[in-house]
Fold:
Amino acid sequence: MLIFVLLAGLFGLLIGSFLNVCIHRWPRDLSVVRPRSACVACGHGIAWYDNAPLVSYAVLKGRCRHCGAAIGWRYPVVELLTGLCFAWFVRRHGLSVDAAKYCVFGAIQIGLIFSDLETLLLPDEFTIGGTILGLAFSPFAFVHDQTFTLLAEILGYRLSPMTASVLESAFGAALPAGTLWLLGWLFEKLRHKEGLGFGDVKMIAMIGAFLGIQGALLTVIVGSLAGSILGFVYIKARKLDAGTFQLPFASFLGAAGLIVALRA
Structure:
């Protein structure tokens, strides 16, 4: 089993390297296929031997080989986090569809966390694409939630496990996201300013599609509490204007979603 955990971690490092490309390019509406990876400072193409996850960063001492510009800390952090998540999920769930599902979910969450931190944008490729993937996984890696199933039983319907999982996934995506959208709309009408971006709504739909409504609600609660407390501390420490400062709320949602998934 240990060998599979280690292989999962190595594969996660490679996925983390690709995630870094997505994090940089998708918010800027750029292709992740072409052109090849290049230094953002000098534009020189990055050779394959300088693109090895973690190793290349250490060998180059965090600097571009050609111009000497600093390579952002985000690159090794994303690679390491993704590798650790993949190793954890395979250790917890074995070689299974469940492990694959949570690995995909973890990669998407990491991508969204760092996209939001850098650009305050949540690419549709992560949110909408992730929602579709969560729904696609649901017939094979069951959503462990009984909310919709209980409602169906109250109405006199008995659902097969596969049907129940698909409906739990869809219900988990639709209800929390719809509720957040409505609250954001009401806030905007009452306060005449945007209170919640639509990207956050789509992100919650994605989380619900993977984790069900209970997982989505727990993510919102934990993310909101963490965002409120840490955001308040940051604003006070930096003496910022709380009325104009844009909190990267999705980063807190992403971290909370990861915590919920790690305990699944």
Notes: The chain has two domains: 1-95, 96-264. The longest helix spans residues 198-238.
